[in-house]
Design a protein that fits this description.
Blueprint lengths: L2 H18 L13 H12 L17 E6 L3 H11 L4 E8 L2 H13 L6 E4 L3 H7 L5 E4 L6 H10 L3 E4 L7 H14 L3 E3 L7 H11 L6 E9 L3 H5 L9 H6 L9 H10 L8 E8 L5 H9 L18 E7 L4 E7 L11 E4 L3 E3 L6 E3 L7 H11 L2 H13 L5 H15 L7 H19 L5 E2 L36
Helix pairs in contact: 3-4, 5-6, 6-7, 7-16, 8-11, 11-16, 14-15
The protein binds nicotinamide-adenine-dinucleotide.
């Protein structure tokens, strides 16, 4: 790399790092500006340092894990991970020390040794810089995902970050550049890829049972408004509400997008080319804020904010001429949905509205036929660990399948199912949707984070070859989540 480019990248990294760790509510207004788009194009035009797709890191016999962020998701992760053999939870970190103490209690309950403790706003920095950690697992608020992952990788650790991995295009590129340069994995923990129907339909797609996929749909439609967004006790420091009160677009695209992107071999034979996005106005969030503020002055600061429009719909075109529709609505009183529609030349799939459905023509197949497909075409990963995962719990088992698979891959030196390019691509839809929405649904080019390697990258492996050596501890009834 020439000196100018090195200087340029340093500028990108320093400039956005300061922003990225800022308080979400005070961050710049949402979306990707022209300068950031130009930087992204320049990155895209340069050479890949190293291809992390299909990369097998050296085996780690016992994976030493640090968990940063011990709120709802992180405290559950500590419990789930404790069931897996071949790992040690060696460090725990949260801004609030009482949360660290609560997770220490979980370790005690699970008969695991005490972990080293870190706390305070910047405790994660000392953790990332410390020795004797192999993997930093980060379920913090969104604005910390990239900074923690970057520091972890720069200090020789693999990074696993909750969804979305990044909030800006600059951050996406920082993850890619750092993972390539350090040869450390950066996996986004997109658990929905490991749900049972998603795994079944991925395997059936791979076998050509739906023909050529033409179109797919995914979503995150989940009414979080009363119980989460405006609930003072549900999560830390109102970070979710601040995100929703300052950005407008699809802020959480990866749950719907990840599983269908894997089915369509995105980054591995096809790539996302461009997108358009449209949001409704906000018809309820500001009203809810006003209502709450009239009874509790705590909510005064959330009145009159530029709330995200209730429903966002984005359309993506791939290079091979296929389309993907992604929706996001966390504030309307609707039943939960990630849609999961796949439409091919020989068949189609739909998960929501439930029940799960598959068709090979004009009608959905019968329940008994679907049961047969589950028996015949569930993936080796699900067949191996699915029943145990259901027993442990965590979104019906998919969380545990994901954790087990991650640890098993690290222990056996296998490539991870989700690499840094997936993390960057699935996450970048959020800032691009914000820009498109802000500019009357303007078409936005989607960066190629693989810098051309998508043409040769192999589809994600559905096999357990070389792995499946990681055991799970006894699940006594009182330990089930
Ligand atoms: N994949 C899924 O199904 C799923 C489900 C829920 C949440 N999530 C993701 O998990 C993450 C956490 O969500 P949550 O619901 O647990 O939120 P939460 O607020 O309950 O937990 C976040 C934790 O991070 C801590 N934290 C904040 N700043 C910190 C800092 N500077 N250093 C260390 N810790 C800090 C908070 O104190 C809190 O304990 C989010 O990214 C969210 O999107 C994913």
């Amino acid at each position: 790399m020439d000196n100018n480019r090195r200087k340029f990248l340093r500028r990108v990294i320093v400039g956005t790092g300061a922003l990225a760790v800022g308080i979400p509510g005070l961050a710049k207004m949402s979306g990707t500006g022209d300068e950031e788009i130009n930087r992204s194009k320049e990155n895209e035009a340069s050479d890949q340092h190293f291809n992390m797709c299909g990369y097998a890191a050296p085996k780690i016999e016992t994976v030493r894990i640090a968990v940063v962020g011990l709120g709802q998701r992180g405290s559950e992760a500590v419990e789930r991970l404790s069931f897996i053999d071949g790992l040690e939870i060696v460090a725990l970190c949260d801004k609030y020390s009482d949360r660290v103490a609560a997770s220490q209690k979980t370790l005690e309950k699970m008969k695991r040794p005490k972990a080293k403790e870190y706390s305070g706003e910047e405790g994660w920095k000392a953790l990332c810089e410390s020795k004797d950690i192999d993997l930093v697992y980060t379920p913090t608020p969104w604005h910390l995902h990239t900074p923690v992952a970057l520091l972890a990788m720069k200090n020789g650790k693999h990074a696993a970050v909750e969804v979305p991995a990044a909030k800006t295009i600059d951050e996406c590129w920082q993850l890619v550049e750092t993972s390539e340069k350090t040869k450390k994995h950066c996996m986004m923990l997109e658990n929905c890829c490991y749900d049972f129907f998603e795994q079944l339909t991925l395997n059936m797609t791979r076998q050509g049972m739906f023909g050529e996929l033409v179109h797919a749909e995914g979503a995150y439609i989940h009414d979080l408004s009363k119980d989460w967004l405006f609930n003072k006790n549900a999560y830390a420091d109102m970070w979710r509400l601040k995100e929703n009160a300052s950005r407008n677009g699809n802020l959480y695209p990866t749950h719907g997008l990840g599983p269908v992107a894997q089915c369509m071999n995105i980054n591995r034979g096809d790539k996302m080319d461009y997108m358009v996005s449209m949001s409704t106005h906000d018809f309820s969030l500001n009203t809810m804020a006003k209502d709450l503020a009239s009874k509790d002055s705590f909510f005064n600061e959330y009145v009159g904010k530029p709330y995200r429009g209730n429903m966002n719909t984005s359309m993506i075109k791939t290079n091979k001429g296929k389309t993907i529709m992604v929706q996001h609505d966390v504030s309307s009183p609707r039943p939960y949905s990630r849609i999961h529609v796949l439409s091919g030349t020989k068949g189609s799939v739909g998960k929501w509205p439930s029940p799960e459905k598959i068709s090979f023509g004009h009608r959905w197949i019968k329940k008994e036929e679907l049961d047969e497909l589950y028996k015949k075409h569930s993936t080796p990963i699900v067949n191996h660990i699915g029943a145990i995962a259901k027993d442990v719990g965590g979104h019906g088992g998919m969380d545990f399948i994901m954790d087990w698979r991650l640890i098993d891959c690290l222990r056996n030196g296998l490539p991870l199912d989700q690499d840094v390019y997936d993390a960057a691509l699935w996450s970048c839809i959020a800032p691009l949707s914000e820009s498109s929405v802000a500019k009357k649904s303007k078409t936005m080019d989607i960066p190629d984070f693989t810098r051309g390697a998508w043409k040769k990258n192999k589809p994600v492996s559905l096999s357990l070859d070389g792995g499946a050596t990681t055991q799970v501890r006894d699940i006594k009834p009182d330990l089930k989540m």
